[in-house]
Amino acid sequence: MARRFTFRFATMLKIRRQREDEHKRVVAERLRQIAQTRDHQLVLERQIREEVDAIRDSQARGSIDIQQVMRHRHWLGHLHKGVLEADARVRFLEARLAQERVVLAEAMKQRKILEKLEERQWQRHLHEEEVREMKESDELATVRYVFDRDADPQTLGT
């Protein structure tokens, strides 16, 4: 009867897969944060364009309200500051992402090492089972030959 294959490090492999999955989630979350920050940055840039257009429209009418121009300029300064902060945040998140990808790559490497070991042990197990079955088959053939030879009436008379 064939022996059942058991990988001695199955628990460790399971833990490494879980660790890799966790790192994948971290990387995915970081990518989501970067995309969200870039979207926010695009919104701010759109608001800047709209504000600049509003300033031009108000100046094109002929009369200039100094208070309104000051409010527009103040608001533009606030929007530009937001764009710069978003840009800095994106750079920070991308740096963190690079670090987290290195950690993920290492986790993937560790998992692959154990999977390769498992595959080798599985192949060795299959080979051992094949050799064992061949030996059993040879032994069975030898027993059958001896039994058939002893049961043959022609060989008994000799």
Distinctive features:
158 residues; mainly alpha; Helix Hairpins; 3 helices
Descriptive report:
The protein has a single domain, classed as Helix Hairpins. By secondary structure, it is mainly α. The chain is built from three helices and no strands.
Question: Uncertain regions: pLDDT < 50 for 5+ in a row?
Answer: none
CATH architecture field: Orthogonal Bundle
How many structurally independent domains? 1
- Tell me, rounded to a whole number, the average pLDDT: 91
Question: How does the helix and strand content classify structurally?
Answer: mainly alpha
What is the overall shape?
Answer: rod-shaped
What is the N-to-C succession of helices and strands?
A: HHH
Largest sheet: none
Q: Distance between the terminal alpha carbons, to the nearest Å?
A: 39 Å
What percent strand? under 5%
Number of strands: 0
CATH class: Mainly Alpha
Helix content: over 70%
- CATH fold type: Helix Hairpins
How many helices does DSSP assign? 3
Radius of gyration: 37 Å
In short:
The chain is mainly alpha-helical.
Provide the fold topology:
Elements: H1 10-60, H2 66-151, H3 153-156
